[in-house]
Structure formats: C-alpha cells, structure tokens
Amino acid sequence: MNRVLTIFNRSQFINTKRFFSINTTLYDKVYTDSEEWISNNKIGISKYGLEQLSEIIYLEFSCEEGDNINKGEDIAIIESVKAAESIEAPYDCIILENNINLEENLDIINNNPECEDNSWIVKIKKL
C-alpha cells in the first residue's frame, strides 16, 4: 500500500492536472490538410507548414476586408525560398481583417508561425 501512495504523491497529481489543462487548449486550434491553423476566427500557417516551405519571403493578400469568399478560394499567397503556396478559405466566409503587419515584417511569422497574437494572416467570419 505504501508503494501506491508513493507513486501517486501530491506533486505528481498536480503536474498531471496541469498537463491536461494545457492539452485542452490545443483543441481550440484546428489544423487543415494544407498545413494552416484556424483559431478564434484567425487563419495562419502551421509550424510544420513553415518547415516544409522554409523561410517565407513574400506575402500577398488575395482579398480585401469585407469580401465574401467561397470555400476553396484563395485568401493569400505565400512565397518562400522553396515554393509558392496559396492559403484557401476553409469554408464560406467574410474577410474581417488582413494582418498587414506581416507584409512589412515577415520575421513575425518566420520566428513563431503559430502565435495567435501576431502571426495570423487573416481574420474571418464563417457565413
């Protein structure tokens, strides 16, 4: 009986609880097959997607704020050292905002692509 109490001491329980609370926040972010993330009406490129592309050197928005976009239409075009890729609308939506800060400073997205505060590419609203 002492062995069971030693294995499940209080500190291990607290760490386990923290672990589970961290994981629940991960489910708020959804990943697409084309390596984008969607969270809180924001779309960005995943860390894995950035690793595949290498460093992003150019970003162009294909639509403006207020535009209605159909599922599969281009929202933005990303050019990297290796290739050019388009970011497509995951569903019918309205563009709420383009992150124009990325056009001037691509280091934001290259350094931390999954930061919801700075590295998002567009904000959308599902129709």
Report on the architecture of this protein.
The chain is of the alpha+beta class and 127 residues long. It has a single domain (29-126), classed as Beta Barrel (OB fold (Dihydrolipoamide Acetyltransferase, E2P)). It has five helices and nine strands. The strands form two sheets. Strands 1-2-3-9-8-5 form a six-stranded antiparallel β-sheet. Strands 4-6-7 form a three-stranded antiparallel β-sheet. β2 and β3 form a beta hairpin. The chain is globular and about 35 Å long.
Topology:
Blueprint: H1 2-7, H2 10-26, E1 30-31, E2 36-39, E3 42-45, H3 47-53, E4 56-61, E5 68-69, E6 74-80, E7 84-88, E8 93-98, H4 101-104, H5 107-111, E9 122-126
Antiparallel strand pairs: 1-2, 2-3, 3-9, 4-6, 5-8, 6-7, 8-9
Summarize the structure.
The protein is 31% helix and 32% strand. The protein is α+β, with helices and mostly antiparallel strands and 127 residues long.
List keywords for this structure.
127 residues, alpha+beta, OB fold (Dihydrolipoamide Acetyltransferase, E2P), 6-stranded antiparallel sheet, 3-stranded antiparallel sheet, 9 strands, 31% helix, globular
